[in-house]
Amino acid sequence: MILITGATGFIGRHLVARLVAQGERPRCLVRDVRQAATVLPADKVELVQGATTQPVTLVKAVNGIETIVHAAFMTADRKQSVGNHYEETNVGGTSNLILAAKAAGVKRIVEISGLGTKPDKPGSYMQGRYLAEKMLIESGLDWTIIRPSVLFGKGAPFIKGLVDLIQTAPVVPLIGGGKILFQPIAVDDVVTVILKVLADPARTNSKIFTIGGPEYYSFSQVFDVLLKATHKSRPKVYAPTPLVGIGAAVMEAILPKPPLTSAAMTLFSFNNTTDLDSVERDFGFKPQSFKTALETQGV
Ligand SMILES: NC(=O)c1ccc[n+]([C@@H]2O[C@H](COP(=O)([O-])OP(=O)(O)OC[C@H]3O[C@@H](n4cnc5c(N)ncnc54)[C@H](OP(=O)(O)O)[C@@H]3O)[C@@H](O)[C@H]2O)c1
Asked: Any idea where the NAD(P)-binding domain is (predicted)?
């Protein structure tokens, strides 16, 4: 029996759909059952109300579970709000889940983390993500960590944010000159990797898999692909990183859903890449090309 946290999220929804398609009935931890039933096939899964930040709700969620796929994180593109803090959700929530899992005799947790996770300043977004991995590694449970690069596919937050910008802004900002590299990977391919990890604990336990698509794109080239796919043309404007950082902080202070947050700026401080053959080498299949997928399927 599998429990999925973050089942209503971007990766979670795609994972649930594939598990259901292969005849499974996963249990999904959801914060709002009614809302979850609008995005998940409610008759084909078990919905359990709860939150990782509320330990008492986890007791029922983990009961009888063998493996947890943990994808309930507050990602950097989200603005913090009451009940949704990076630290509280990513560190506290993961700690609560591990404790509940151990108490209930859960065997294994597969954590969906992010490429580039590393120690950082105490209290920072990145440090929280690092601690969420570290706690699992030191938990005594069987574990696997998957660290994908940015994702594309239906509903992908990173791509949607950039497309919204193209649709609404007269120019597109090349943060830091647009040179930072990305390695977009299709959500379907990430789900295939998760399913392969679930199917083969002997080979994948106690491992961190960093995965990305088959090509590198600079931020400027990501815009080129999206401009072509949306049939738009926009001047690209150099946007110095410190200036964009200030802009992000201001937008975060005044907008409920800012297009950019200060935490998301970390994405622009390093190349979001790994080996080009990471998926083929570790999982035996070729992931989709970002450019080809957008040319054939649109945004
Ligand atoms: N999307 C990407 O491009 C990408 C790239 C690399 C890595 N990742 C990683 O993949 C993981 C999943 O990302 P995602 O894009 O699927 O995120 P997402 O769409 O923002 O989904 C987050 C999920 O977590 C749930 N959640 C948040 N706080 C919770 C809590 N306290 N208790 C229970 N559930 C809670 C949300 O539930 P509600 O519906 O109630 O809000 C939602 O289902 C994250 O670790 C992310 O960093 C994502």
From this structure: 6-153
